[in-house]
Amino acid sequence: MNIKHHPDDATLLAFAAGSLGEAASVVVASHLAWCPACRATVRCAERLGGTLIDGLETEPVSAGILDRCLSALDQAPSGPAPAPRAVDDPALPAPLARRLGHPMSQIRWKRVAPGIQVHDLDLSPSARGRLSLIRVTNGHGVPAHGHSGSEITLVLSGSYTDRFGRFEPGDVADLDPEIEHDLAVDSKEPCVCLIAMDAPIRFKGVLARLMQPFMGF
Ligand SMILES: [Zn+2]
C-alpha cells in the first residue's frame, strides 16, 4: 500500500488525546491500521501528552468535586458505543471491520443517485455527525460541495481524483469546513470510502442541490 495522503497533524493529535469525535476516530483508527508513519506520530503524541501530564503540578480541589463530576456524568447524554463484533474480512482495516460487524459483501447499500450508494454505520446515541460508507462506480462522482463541518474520508478500494490529487486505498482526505471540492472516480472498480462528517455537506449548483435530499447528507 502506497499511502500519499494522511490526516492533518492536528487530527492525529486530537485522536491521541482522545478528543476526536467518535465517527472521525473510526476513520483515523482505520487509517492507522494501514499506515505505520501515522502510527508513529500518534505514539509520539501519546508519549508527549503523558510527559506533559506528569509535569503538571497538582493543586488541592474543593471537597465534593468528585461528587459533582459524577453527578454531571450521570446527567450527560450517554449511551454505549455500538459493541464491536468479531468479523473476518481481510480487505478491511480491523477498526472498521469491528464497527461494521459483517463483511463488506453483506452490506445492504442504499442507492442515492445514479452510480452512488451509501451505507450508514451505527454510532453511540450521544455521538455527533455521521459515519458512512459510500460506493461510487466508475464514470460517476460526487458533485461540487462544501461542508458545514469537517469531513474526513478514507479510501478503502478503487480510487478517485479531485483538485487535491489522486486518492487510492489507505489515503485520507482531511477537509476543513471551508474547503469545497468535487470528485470523480477513475478506477475500473467502484471506489468505496469511509467518511466521517461533523455536519451535513452542502451541494453547489442546481442539479447537485437536487441530489441533496437523496444523499441525506
Ligand atoms: Zn498516515
Tell me what portion of residues adopts beta-strand conformation. 25-35%
The 3D shape can be described as globular
Instruction: Spell out which ligands are present.
Output: zinc ion
What is the ordering of alpha helices and beta strands? Answer: HHHHHEEEEEEEEEEEH
Chain-averaged pLDDT: 79
Give the neighbour order of strands across the main sheet. 1-2-3-10-5-8
Label the structural class: alpha+beta
Outline the structure in words.
The protein contains six helices and eleven strands. It is an alpha+beta fold and 217 residues long. Helix 1 (9-17) packs across helix 3 (36-55) and helix 2 (22-34) packs across helix 5. The mean pLDDT is 79. Zinc ion (ZN) binds next to helix 3.
Give me some keywords for this one.
217 residues, alpha+beta, six-stranded antiparallel sheet, 6 helices, 11 strands, binds zinc ion
Secondary structure blueprint with pairings:
Blueprint: H1 9-17, H2 22-34, H3 36-55, H4 65-75, H5 94-100, E1 110-113, E2 116-120, E3 130-136, E4 141-147, E5 151-157, E6 160-162, E7 165-167, E8 172-175, E9 181-185, E10 191-197, E11 201-203, H6 206-215
Antiparallel strand pairs: 1-2, 2-3, 3-10, 4-9, 4-11, 5-8, 5-10, 6-7, 6-9
The structure holds zinc ion (ZN).
